[in-house]
Amino acid sequence: MGIIGVTVAMFLLSALAPGDRLFDLLAMDNRAVADGEVWRMVTVVLLHANLVHIWFNMWALWVLGPQIEREVGGLRFVLLYLASAATGSAFAFWLGGPLDLGVGASGAIFGLFGVWLASAVRRRHTAYGRYLLSQLGFVLLINAAIPFVFPNVSWQAHLGGLLAGFVLGNAWAVVRGPGRPAWQAATALVLLAASLLSPLLLSGG
């Protein structure tokens, strides 16, 4: 609810504020990221192009997020969200053009898809796991087709976020017991840091 509240507030602020100042400061801009403005790789989640864009992402967060947050806690959920966003942005940087611009929380949202997908794959030999796989497979197939219909949608960010969530979902399931919270936080922080640093390393910054 906190993430939804902040995102909606930023959407309203960006709509009411004169000019494009927030977009100039916070949007995913490959050229600016290459110059060292890596914060854009996570602040991109605060901006959305229109009502349909923000409605879809916040609805998906509302559906996919609560159970994950209940299982891991608020702090690790935020780390998952940010790490998925940063990895999605890294993929948009690696696989996109040098002048590409982007807004939206899709990378972070696909990270949640990835966590659910990891859980479904681990449970694929159960009736629930097979059901979950079929449902997720259908949703992901639709989303894979969207960039062909709407070319401005960043399939790179979707792919990066999905892979981030899938990797973290599986990594988080490895450790049990009292050390699990620290392990979950550490793995998310490592992925977040690696994603933020990767454009600087690639561009020689």
Structure description:
There is one protein chain. This protein has 205 residues and is mostly helical. A two-stranded antiparallel sheet has the order 1-2. α5 crosses α7 and α6 runs parallel beside α10. The chain is globular, with a radius of gyration of 17 Å. The mean pLDDT is 89.
Largest sheet: 2 strands, antiparallel
Radius of gyration: 17 Å
Report the structural category.
Answer: mainly alpha
- Beta-strand content estimate: under 5%
Mean pLDDT: 89
N-to-C series of helices and strands: HHEHHHHEHHHH
The tally of strands reads 2
Global morphology: globular
**Percentage of residues assigned to helices:** over 70%
Strand order of the largest sheet: 1-2
Name the poorly predicted regions: none
Instruction: Please count the helical segments.
Output: 10
Produce a short descriptive summary:
The protein is mainly alpha-helical and 205 residues long. It is built from 10 helices and 2 strands, in the order H-H-E-H-H-H-H-E-H-H-H-H.
Give a quick set of tags describing it.
mainly alpha, 77% helix, 10 helices, 2 strands, two-stranded antiparallel sheet, globular, 205 residues, 2% strand
What order do the helices and strands come in, and which of them pair?
Blueprint: H1 2-16, H2 21-26, E1 28-29, H3 30-34, H4 40-43, H5 51-72, H6 74-95, E2 101-102, H7 106-122, H8 127-149, H9 155-174, H10 180-203
Antiparallel strand pairs: 1-2
Helix pairs in contact: 1-5, 5-6, 5-7, 6-7, 6-9, 6-10, 7-8, 7-9, 9-10
